[in-house]
Design goal:
The structure holds 2 protein chains of 2 kinds. Chain A is mainly α. Chain A folds into 2 domains: 149 residues; 114 residues. Chain A contains 13 helices and 5 strands. Chain A starts with a helix and ends with a helix. The two termini of chain B are 23 Å apart. By secondary structure, chain B is mainly alpha-helical. Classes of the chains: A mainly alpha, B mainly alpha. Chains A and B meet through α11 and α12 of A and α2 and α6 of B.
Chain lengths: 290, 156
């Protein structure tokens, strides 16, 4: 009996070790990005479409290129605090390599080889194409360096154990497209909605582990901070025309001329800088959701 | 907006507003919150007219666009301290208002955003008569000011 218990313990330890190995933080291979040249001008479009500033800019400023982090995001798992992504080499991401940047966006893995929490929407950014990653990296080096230390997230056990995020990724990180898109415009719209714009991160409800519920994709969700509800974007929940959606993203005005508030005001502030064609592509893709 | 000055005047204005509402047969509710919401409805009504032109849903008419933009600028410039009296946030009035207490807290940018709206409405008034595209561009500034305030100071 004692012998059997010992073997069971050994098996359990081996099992945990195997699980940790299988869910270890993934990185991109340096060769994949070695030949890519980033273009900062194109990267700026990726930056606005990706909504980086919505979370990483300072709370006290309207300057969308000041990215010292510090914003707090209360959730059922605890409070996440956006880190510094300015070009500061010590506190920001200024001394990263393009490969490290790509691993962060596409795999949610830090330069130190640790898992990022999925509050950083890499589950969506995992769908980015490599050239956009390179262009965005070129742009990120042009934003001002702000020497402000990133703060630790304030999370409760067991969510403060980063190794558990590997299991989360195994279960919920699915880089395949969610919906089909036929025309070039719908493909562009899908890329902006499902990858860069990461709309589903907020507009889809999550299960108790914080994984998006595929069965209720974009159907609207309770606000993670507790009060309020994030509206659905599928046609059964949103009857605006494509022009209405595009105009909302341009100005923040709803068809009734109420205006965007809360977190969506931040989204309009960044998506509003895209081309009219890109906003219309988003609108047409949203209208095409079944 | 200066909340520290003229508090007595504000209370007097509020009392008067309350009396007027009560006299008018009572919409009920807090008079300051009612006045704010009425003000917002006037913004929305005028924006709807001018926005429909910007979007091309109705034909562009320079005179109508100009008149409507003038209304918006007038609304933005109205002296509103009495509407925004301290003690009329969600903390005190619950569901009667969506105005968050942070409007009145230290470090509030509420007043600055009010000035931003006046500036944007001024640019709209200068642009509205110049054509549909110019109009459409200028409305974005107004929308930006609306959202800047609703981002942090309006209950979700």
């Amino acid at each position: 009996m004692k012998r059997a218990m010992t073997w069971l313990s050994v098996l359990a330890v081996l099992g945990i070790a195997a699980a940790l190995w299988l869910t270890r933080p993934a990185v991109v291979s340096p060769a994949r990005f070695a030949s890519l040249q980033g273009d900062a001008m194109r990267g700026e479009v990726v930056f606005w479409a990706g909504g980086c500033a919505s979370c990483h800019k300072a709370e006290t400023t309207d300057d969308d290129l000041a990215l010292p982090g510090g914003r707090r995001f209360a959730t059922q798992f605890g409070t996440f605090i956006a880190p510094n992504i300015s070009s500061d080499p010590t506190h920001g991401i200024g001394d990263w390599t393009m490969t490290e940047f790509a691993s962060a966006l596409l795999h949610g893995t830090s330069p130190e080889g640790r898992h990022y929490y999925p509050a950083f929407p890499y589950a969506s950014y995992a769908r980015m194409n490599d050239q956009d990653v390179a262009d965005l990296w070129a742009f990120m080096q042009t934003v001002p360096a702000l020497p402000l230390a990133s703060q630790r997230h304030d999370l409760a056990f067991p969510f403060n154990v980063r190794a558990s995020i590997g299991a989360w990724k195994f279960l919920f990180l699915k880089p395949a497209w969610v919906r089909p898109a036929e025309t070039p415009e719908l493909k562009r719209g899908r890329y902006l909605v499902e990858a860069l714009g990461h709309c589903a991160e907020c507009h889809t409800p999550r299960n108790f582990l914080g994984g998006s519920l595929a069965s209720a994709w974009m159907e609207g969700a309770p606000h993670p901070a507790g009060k309020g509800r994030i509206p659905g974007l599928v046609p059964s929940a949103l009857d605006w025309s494509a022009d209405d959606i595009a105009y909302y993203l341009e100005t923040g005005f709803t068809p009734d001329f109420d205006s965007a508030g809360g977190d969506m005001a931040e989204v309009v502030a960044t998506i509003g800088r895209l081309s009219p064609e890109d906003r219309l592509a988003i609108a047409h893709y949203i209208k095409a959701l079944e | 907006m200066n909340f520290s000055k003229g508090f007595a005047r504000m209370v007097a204005a509020l009392t008067l507003a309350g009396a007027t509402f009560a006299h008018a047969g009572g919409h009920g509710g807090n008079p300051a919150a009612n006045a704010r919401q009425a003000h917002m409805k006037l913004y929305a009504f005028n924006l709807d007219l001018i926005g429909a032109m910007a979007k091309g849903e109705i034909g562009y008419d320079a005179d109508a666009a100009q008149a409507t933009a003038n209304n918006l600028l007038t609304l933005a410039m109205m002296h509103q301290d009495a509407y925004w009296a301290p003690g009329t946030s969600t903390a005190e009035l619950g569901n009667e208002t969506r105005a968050l207490p942070s409007i009145w807290e230290g470090g509030s940018r509420f007043g600055d955003i009010g000035l931003q709206l006046i500036e944007a409405a001024g640019q709209l008034a200068a642009a509205a008569g110049e054509g549909q595209d110019t109009l459409r561009d200028a409305i974005r500034g107004v929308g930006g000011a609306c959202s800047a305030c609703h981002r942090n100071y309006r209950q979700r």
